[in-house]
Amino acid sequence: MRRVPFPLPLLLALAALTAACGQGAPVTAVRAGGAELSLETHPSPPVSRREVLFRLRAAETGRPLAGATATLDLAMPGMDHGPNRVTLEERAPGVYEGRGILVMAGPWRAAATLRHRGGRLTAVFRFNAPR
Fold this sequence. Notes:
CATH class: Mainly Beta
Largest sheet: 9 strands, antiparallel
CATH topology: Immunoglobulin-like
Number of strands: 9
Shape: globular
């Protein structure tokens, strides 16, 4: 029996993909009023009609933006499913989490609002939820 060599770079790439499976990757990162916000979903990509964990990370000049109140308003462009608000709770300094359900597969818009020190930051994230 002859052995076929398995290329090491391919093996390392497969290991990295396997390790990342099921972990949330940022939907996108945006700047809002001097702060950097990024949104992750678990699972990633989010699945419609199942509970999704939303994690919003907020930083200002590289430091966590702690002590804010945060919400996500979920909507599908061109559709009216009624209000779909997720209240996010601070889990660590600058890390806000909450759970919600995307009622249909397709393109989604998540409008994040953070209230902090009497001010308000807003950012819009766009992503797709497969079936």
